[in-house]
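In the current project phase, work has continued on tokenised descriptions of protein folds. One protein thus recorded appears below exactly as we store it.

——
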Amino acid sequence: MKFNFKNFRFDCDLQILTKDGNTFSLNEKPAQLLTLFLCEANKIHSKADILESVWPDRVVTDQVVFQNISYLRAVFGNDAIKTFTKKGYQWQLPLSEVVPDEIVLLDQIKPENDIKESFDLGESDLKTVHLNKARVNWALIYFVLITSIAAIGVFLLKSTGSDSSTIIEKPQTFVSILPVIQVENNKSIQELNAFLSSNKQAALIKQNQLTGQALFDSPFKTWQSLSQSDEQLLLTYKIYSLADETVLRFYLQGKYRGWQGYIVDDSIGLVAIKLNQLLEMLQSSVYFSLKSANAALAQLTLLHNTQPNNQLLTQKLIQFHYELDDFDVANALVDHELKKPQHILNRGLYHQLKVNIANKNSNWPRAQKDVEETLRIFTTLNLPQLESTALIQASWFAFLNQENQKSREYLNTAANKARIAQEPLQEVKAHLTQSFMASKMKQTALMHSHLDIAKRLITLHQLNDEHQISVLSNLAWSTHSRSEELAYYQQILEAPFSALYIHDYYSAADFVRLELIAQKKYQQVLASIKPWQRESFAILTRAQIKFANKEWQSAMTFAMQAFEAARIAHEHYDALDAALLLIQYQSHLSKGDDIGEYVNYISKNASKRWRRINRVLIKDLGYW
């Protein structure tokens, strides 16, 4: 028998639950309990009846009945099952039995959201229906090639005796849940905690001074403070109400990388199922165990290929390509997703990704409409944290269009929205952005006012010291004195490294390198090479010192080594800088060396942003 209720359909024979055509696999016992309720919807079922029907020949407590009913309520709503005091429980939602000509054939069911629910509610094996008919869309062909190459590379490493055990063998991964304080949604938070704690590979962290907000604000530092092993993952989340739906914002952090995402569905139970599905998938993969970003991208691509319509995987894949400066691939994926019907929240997130891509690639005119659409969507949804982010993005475009008053209004509103959302770091960003813009407009008093507010917020909310890096970067960008700029950047280099501000550290290292070479302070330049720097970046520093000293042969050797190391590690910016250096000093190349390789590399790989930064030298060389 099959029944329809709300936007669900349940097949009592196959124990398959679908919602809007997407399949959810329930645990064996919740599925059997649901079958009992639906097949005898007019009956009040006592605990004894339920135990006899669902747990025959088993000795279990009444608490097991309550836990499974609570689970079904979390999935379908509290009004789905009514409690009759001292009598039992009865199904309440209107039902319609599916007649044969309405039955959806099994191969018509969409497999992309096949949810394998793993909550252990006091029972044993799961009964899972697998419907893996995932389709690979056109945008993934490129990724399949990447993963194939990665797999071959792993095989070769293993066959040559290299230490690839962390790639081949999956270590045991445990998820520690860091609770968040959220008074307005405390009941939902407790329900979600209970759901995830029933996962044998997850547990709440108790009696700790750090809260979930610390993981949102300082993910790497928080992981370093709390992790017990390299394989441990930290998880936190916040819950928001969206009309008749529930929105979950989560952050998952491992040793090498993090994952922030949003899940939206009709109930906290369905949201919990989706989050748990993601956790199970990642726990069974090596995504968080891989140090190499490109190896992690290959693993993420493999996961995405199994579920190409999984929004969490798709959004993370786009974000990853964006972070690796694969702007064309990232943009193509976003455009492909925006052509599909999307939940309004996901549509807003995709437009936000387009803005980030265009901004980093210095393609501001293209992003104008996406900025406006992102702001419109998040304002409509009344999600202040996302509104704040969109307002800061919009302020930059207003600033570039010389609409200074408008940019200030955006940023003041962004700071206010961040405060409402209880996102202190977001509020700090709004004030630092306004401080920078004020400095460019030579409004010194306003610049220092917002900078002081940002500093006070960091202290007031006891944010990690790593966030002082953003203050120092802001001071470096704002000053008109090169000696002051150098001093600020040197402070950044001497501070403990923070992966959260990796771009600030490299900007500081690059400026310090060039400035000290110009001053012929070569020992200080060598001292600026830090353990966290990329191999190709450090080699490039040595090459530039040699060029400055006119040690041509050594300089060319270092530059070539930097170029090769950068290409092997897929560090395009270092490879571009090394290639430009070799072309600049081509007269010192050996007779057998050809600059054509370097010219072609720049022609094929230079981004608009890199070309803009090096526009003077590029123009002088005249190759492009």
In short: The longest helix spans residues 141-159.
